[in-house]
Amino acid sequence: MTPIKINLTAIFLLITVVSFCQEKIDKDEIDKVRKTWNKAFVDTTANFFNKKPNELLMETVKGKKPGKALDIGMGQGRNSIFLAKNGWKVTGIDIADEAMKMAIKEAERNHVQIDTIVTPMETFDYGINQWDLVVRLYEGCLNGGADMDKVAKSLKKGGLFVFEFFHIEAGIEMKRPDFGCTSANVKEIVEKTNKFKILSYSENKGVADYSLKTLKLIKLVAKKK
Ligand SMILES: C[S@@+](CC[C@H](N)C(=O)[O-])C[C@H]1O[C@@H](n2cnc3c(N)ncnc32)[C@H](O)[C@@H]1O
Asked: Are strands 155-166 and 214-224 parallel, antiparallel or unpaired?
């Protein structure tokens, strides 16, 4: 009995240490990303991104009755503000607190209100049947399993999910082979939830909202079943 007890204790301790280290690594990574994006949006005047709202988002909501929207990784708020100006009640989440302050000021200048929450998306409670629209634009590829399930559960029936990011070939072209998504990182993950009907999916070259270069992009619009 004793050797088994010792082994179980050892395993428990190992799991605790690994989880602690993992959390530490993630927090460091979040801080690094926060600093990068705060600097990118606040400190630089460089014209590195499209200040207008994302085209796919504009097309998707055109003629739709506005409702509640969640903007994941809202950045300096170009898409949140566009939605708010069109009658949507928007919540934007991000880790780049300084960029979000810019978004709030810009919303005020436009006489619209947006709710902002400084939080990593990983720990945000998306809620259940909350949103008519969830937006994830230029934030990264989709993470499998739980993450997309969280998005699916949080959308109301008929609610829309809009996604756009660089294709992996764009990453290779930019000499960042680890950057960019495959259809497995996007379409297959959405399909695996069994909770969406994909309304449109493309992998084509176009001007990327970030970098403003012509690169291969993945675009997806899906509707909650
Ligand atoms: C390229 S910007 C895109 C901003 C905006 N979606 C747009 O299209 O203009 C990426 C944003 O994702 C945010 N971000 C990165 N990792 C995040 C995380 N784990 N949780 C929440 N936001 C994150 C960054 O801080 C940054 O503002």
From this structure: antiparallel
